[in-house]
Design goal:
Blueprint: E1 19-24, E2 30-33, E3 41-45, E4 48-52, E5 58-63, E6 70-76, E7 87-93, H1 95-101, H2 103-108, H3 115-137, E8 153-155, H4 167-178, H5 185-196, H6 200-212, H7 216-226, H8 249-262, H9 265-278, H10 304-329, H11 349-353, H12 370-388, H13 418-431, H14 438-445, H15 463-477, E9 510-516, E10 519-525, H16 541-549, E11 553-555
Parallel strand pairs: 1-8, 5-7, 6-8, 9-11
Antiparallel strand pairs: 1-2, 3-4, 4-5, 6-7, 9-10
Length: about 550
């Protein structure tokens, strides 16, 4: 997909020299003379220099600033293969640009703060004296295509969080943004035009490195000035549609990450809605602990990650509640509105044997075989939910989930074994369960067949009753405005619980919601004088979605 995007802005080749000062982020600087055996023999390659050393490593040298007086170096070593030679990337930039636009480099190269800064300033003064001497003597300037070994070097070591695929491109783009003031007017216009169409994967990495080097302001200003368009994708990001569900999870997360950084409220809401509908591989067993070595978009900040997971679970819980409703009215589940019967004892078994209330038949016709009609549809419904859509699981409650008759032996998984039902089969059900996409789950439930026990029992099944209720859920899930997505202005800072969070128990909540066919006909909320009504206006579609999916009880067929 990234091949659709234009190449990074290229830099023109520049100059050469002989000794260097290494300024590392983790080590004190050392001054060393490169041995003759390591002097690279230059191989011109367009706008950059590519050289090879006797040790087998390659050097790729790029000039960003004509007046560059410092080299930024990154060594790319393939950690999966020790046979491949390492590649050193060097960018020649201006220290003034780095210090003016990056607080990190301003501190690192400050002679009054760090030893690296004092060493750099001493080396810079020495180079200035040598340059003045060359001018007075009429010496020719070094070739513009050769690496400048005489310039001090700053090594970048702590960039492990950046994706390996775009790491060097991200570093080069970041340095060019810091060096923007050194470009000519035509170069600036060309750079902004190319930056506007770069892929989200590259820009997300750019924001990541800006955070690593404490330089978010200049990157944000540059992206806003260029009018960054989130790549050249054909899928519009300002309205939710099925095409967004075809994007990979990482691409969706990268766009959300960029939208947070650039305060793109509409795109943030649409893409978070998309992630809620799609689901995440990171949410297999609740929201895990963030991996410090992973890019930041794999664990969204300020409580957003937890909020998206919670909202998805609320939608899935609503779908589960709808299935439970039909299982309950057909007699497979207890009705929570019935009085709870106490645990029977031997002396009262006879008195407690008869139920206190007879369950009404669901058969439409009231024939003598109505009980058989209900039993038939209960069986068909259970088989459909458990085997076709895989949205419910049938297992044993008698044994511990981790118990196995023959530990380590999976040969009997196809047998009807209690242990398999509760542990191994449950794991298999998770792997071969329903699709993660909520719209696909709803679509699969809409395939419910309309069987009948005989020709006299037309329409006694659940299909004609299930589909309108699914339409009610789908109206919120498929809305083009992204009703499930959070509103960005409430999530820019990290409070313990955002004012608009669905987890916020101080907000007004729905005690019961009455649904008739595919419409919500009434919402009975907690007293508004005792709870905060919420930042969203009452009656807004986003607020209706929150009340519907977080309701304590839903009357599906009022």
């Amino acid at each position: 997909m990234d091949s659709e995007y234009p190449p990074l802005p290229s830099a023109a080749p520049k100059a050469a020299g002989a000794s260097k000062v290494l300024l590392s982020r983790d080590a004190t600087p050392t001054s060393s003379q490169s041995p003759a055996s390591e002097e690279p023999s230059l191989i011109p390659n367009g706008s950059q220099g590519v050289s090879a050393t006797s040790s087998g490593s390659r050097l790729i040298y790029k000039v960003i600033s004509d007046n560059g007086d410092v080299i930024i170096e990154y060594t790319d070593e393939d950690e999966h293969s020790c046979r491949l030679p390492s590649v050193r990337y060097q960018w020649q930039v201006s220290s003034d640009d780095l210090m003016n636009n990056s607080p990190y480099f301003a501190a690192l190269l400050d002679p009054n703060k760090f030893f690296e800064g004092r060493t750099f300033m001493e080396r810079k003064a020495e180079l200035n004296r040598q340059s003045e001497l060359q001018v007075r003597n009429g010496d020719s300037e070094p070739p513009r295509d050769a690496p400048r070994n005489d310039l001090p070097t700053v090594k970048l070591n702590n960039v492990d969080r950046l994706p390996r695929k775009h790491k060097t491109d991200v570093i080069g783009l970041f340095l060019k943004i810091l060096s923007f003031d050194s470009l000519s007017d035509s170069e600036k216009d060309h750079f902004d035009g190319e930056l506007q169409r770069q892929s989200p994967s590259l820009i997300a990495g750019l924001i990541e490195i800006a955070d690593l080097f404490n330089s978010p302001h200049i990157v944000r200003v540059t992206l806003k000035r260029s009018g960054y368009a989130f790549g050249r994708g054909k899928v519009p990001l300002t309205k939710f549609n099925s095409a967004l569900l075809k994007l990979s999870e990482e691409r969706v997360r990268q766009i959300i990450f960029i939208a947070i950084f650039l305060d793109e409220h509409n795109i943030f809401q649409i893409l978070t809605h998309t992630l809620i509908v799609l689901g995440s591989k990171s949410w297999a067993n609740e929201v895990g602990v963030p991996d410090p070595g992973s890019p930041s978009w794999w664990y969204l900040p300020n409580g957003i990650e937890e909020e998206l997971y919670y909202r998805r679970q609320c939608v899935l819980n609503t779908i589960t509640d709808l299935q439970a409703h039909f299982l309950r009215i057909y007699g497979a589940l207890e009705d929570p509105s019935d009085p709870k019967s106490s645990v029977p004892n031997p002396t009262s078994m006879t008195q407690n044997a008869a139920p206190g209330r007879t369950r009404p038949f669901q058969c439409r016709w009231g024939f003598s075989n109505s009980r058989a009609c209900d039993a038939f549809h209960l069986g068909e419904m259970t088989r459909f939910f458990a085997m076709r859509t895989k949205t419910i699981f049938l297992g044993s409650t008698l044994i511990d989930p981790g118990f196995s008759v023959d530990p380590g032996d999976d040969s009997n998984l196809n047998n009807i074994d209690p242990a398999a039902e509760s542990s191994s089969q449950r794991a298999a059900a998770q792997q071969q369960g329903p699709p993660a996409d909520i719209t696909a789950i709803i679509a699969s439930l809409k395939q419910c067949p309309d069987y009948q026990i005989d020709s006299n029992h037309t329409g006694c099944g659940i299909r004609r009753r299930l589909l309108p209720a699914l339409d009610c859920i789908e109206r919120f899930v498929g809305d083009g405005r992204g009703l499930l997505g959070p509103v960005l202005r409430f999530w820019k800072s990290p409070p313990p619980t955002s004012a608009s969070s669905w987890m916020n128990r101080s907000l007004r909540r729905a005690e019961t919601i009455d649904i008739r066919y595919s419409k919500i006909i009434s919402v009975n909320c907690t007293p508004s004088d005792s709870l905060f009504p919420g930042p969203l206006p009452p009656g807004s579609t986003e607020e209706d979605a929150r009340l519907f999916f977080t309701a304590k009880k839903r009357n599906w067929e009022t």
